[in-house]
Structure formats: structure tokens, C-alpha cells
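Repro:
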Amino acid sequence: MCMKSAKIRQGLSDDKYFACYRRATVTTTIRNISEVDCDDYCEGEGNCDSYIYDSNNRRCIAKPRYMQRPRKVFRGGSRNTGDAFCDVISKFEKAYCRCFDANDLASAVRLINSDDVIMDMRSCSTRPGRNGLELTYKQKNPEIRRMFGYRSFPNACSEGDAVRFLEDENESQRCESLIQDACDAIDVPVTCPCFDANDLASAVRLINSDDVIMDMRSCSTSPDRNGLELTYKQKNPEIRRMFGYRSFPNACSEGDARRFLEDENESQRCESLIQDACDAIVKAVTCPCFDANDLASAVGKINNDTVDMNEMSCSTDSDRNGVTLLYRQKNSNFTQEGFGSYPDSCLFGGDSIRSLQNEEESQRCESLIQDACDTLHAPDVKAVTCPCFDANDLALAVDKINNGTVDMDMSSCSNCTNRYGLGITYKPKNSEFEAMFGYGSFPNSCLYEGDILQRLEDENESRRCESLIQDACDTLAVPVMDLCI
């Protein structure tokens, strides 16, 4: 295409108009015309401010000055006068859109059909509620985010980012018609309106590089799954938003944005794209009930003493049936929360069970909980004591008995198997008082000063009290009465 710059004329004022349309100056495209006739029409007769002649398509693109001369140019160089020319020009102008022409769109079609670029998912839409029509595309290099191509709207058109307003509905229809013709020439692949292969490739890179945590529902192979997804979340537990892509039988989504699909072909395309991405993931064995972030959150609550950990959590008992990390809110009787791993299932939410598919999943779940247990703050190990007495108290009592300064009660240090507790009690030598002194241990309480009982908190305290008395009994130098029944 060449422009005869020497023939460009300037100075047309805004009040000049094109006689056929009674409107401001427009560009007229005349097809199947020779360069001589184009030049003669524009330059020789002075009808144009400027013109371009396309020798490949024998097309004269002219910017008219006025239409009042009697002789006008027609196709193939034929000439006529008057209103007939207006009809011809009207026919020629059906191919005119101020933002693009058929050649521009043909170039875009060639790029798309040759797979040199990626056609945007919004291109050539057939949705009844669409706002205009477009043929847009982007480079295959994901670092180039700029969108190329052409759009037609009800009152505007665009080439790339450059938008121009249209004069009337006729021009709008011409722009849309040009794009529609181009769309008809595209070898249209079925696309997914929510995402493409590049979007999913970016997600795969993030997951495989361990920069994010893939959601446990991703790439499910369950036969009763409702669609397919590839979703993930940030490693920062404070960011709870889920990222990624999903395909359902009649819809698809990118993050939280969902769009309905037009037909089964689109649905299959969306699912196929996700499946291809799933096949590219270096899959690690996961636990379907929880992940490291879930357990880290639980450990944080326990370590910060905002919840009470269940006493069976993180058990090291060799006979245990799995391992758990369970807790409930402080001073609360509500249902416990937390996680658990068992040979064939896992627990989440405190009471929800999910079956495991294989031993690898079982081992993964147990490993995650064990790692979490290892990060718990070790509680201060307090020695179990007896709240009523200690070894020193009992040693003083034994000294008094062994020295003969007191009389030991005959029921002290009983060896009877059916005894109810164990005690070491006494009263002053030859005393007429009935008062008894000493210490005792019973299943739920202990005794001190001969007659004061104190309730014990647990079995550990009971065993400790009894053990102290038994040790004291073993140091007695006086005989013990056998009063067993």
C-alpha cells in the first residue's frame, strides 16, 4: 500500500459536509478501481483532501472534500452523476469502520489460526447479552500482558487500547459486521471462559515450587466429585482467601468469580485444562482432613493458653489407636475441636471423620500431627505431692514411735489386702485422752493431725500419699499388729 503524500490536501473546515449524508467529512472506500481513476477522482477533479491507493486490493480510500461536481467515479472507472453516485458510495461505505478495516482483521485471523498468539476468551462471543463484539488476543509470552486486537461497542470502537466514538448506529453496525466476518474465518477452538492454559501453568509453577499450599480438594480422583479444581492458598495462615480455578458441570470459576458455561463442550474444555495442569503437578501425598497450617493454628492456640488441650492429645502410649490434637475453649463444655489420625480415617473439626484411601495418606496424617505435637510447649513437670503431709512429717512420727514416747495405734501400717487406706497414727504414752495424732491415706482423701481430712484431686495424689506412709511404715522398729478379718 502506498500513500501519495504529494497529493495530500489540507484546510477542510468543519462546516463542509458530504452531500449524500449531510454530515462532517468521512473516509470513503471505493473498491475495484484503478489507480488512474482513483487519482483522477481525487486529484484531477479535486474531490478529496487526501487518498490512499491499495494496489493489492485495487482499493481507493478517499477523504472527500465535497460532492457537487457532475462527473463521479464508479467501480472499474465507470462514471455517472447525481443521486446514483450516493447509492454507490453508500454501498462502498458498508466496509468502513474508523478503528479498523477488513485487512486489519484478516491479519489478526492469520495470527490466531496459525497459533502464533492466544485468542482472548471473550473474542467472538455469541452470548445474547454481550456488549458489542471483539476479536482480541495476547502474546504467548506470559510476561507480555498487553491485549491486542479490535472491538466494536454500541457507540464506540477500538484498536488495542485506542478507543474512538462512532457517529451513529450505522457505523456501529459496520464495525461489528467486520469483526463478525473475521470471527467466521477463525478456526475456532473451544475455550474456557474463566481461564486458559497460561493461567493454570502459573498455578502449577507456584505449587511445584512450594510457594503456596495446594488445597486438599485439588485434582481429586474421587468418582463422585462435582467437577475438578486446582486451588491453593498462601502459606501465611492469616491470608484465608483461596486462589485458583474450578470447573463444574455448568460453570467455571477463577478464585471467587464464577461464570456459567454455554454448553457441554465448554464444560469439557474447562475440565480438560485443569486435568492437564493436575498432570503437571509434582504430587506430594497429602492428608485429606488437614494440613500443616491447620495444625499450626491449633498449636498456637494451645501454646498461647487460649484453649485447654485434651489430656489424650499427643499420646505416646504404644497401644494408642492413632494420634490426636484435640482441645476445647477455656472453661467451656462445648464440643471439642481439633484433628486426629487413625489407621483408616482422619478427623477434622473435632467430630468429622473422612476415610483414607491408602496407607500413605494414613502415614501423612499421623506425621503431620506428630510434627505439630513436637512444637507444643513442654508443660512444667510438677512433682506429685501429698497435700496432707510429706516425708519429714512421717519421719518425726516414726521417731516418736520408735523411741517409745508415744503409743502407736494398733491399726497403723496394716498389711491387710482388704484394708481401706493406710495410716500411721498414735497418742501420747499412758494418756487418758482419746485424741489420736498422725497421718493417713485413703482412696479419695488424706488425713493429718489425727482428725483433719482433705480431699485429693486425682489418683496420682492418692498413690503418692499411700507411698509416703508405706515408706514410713517400713522404717518402724516396733511390731505391727495383724488385725485382718
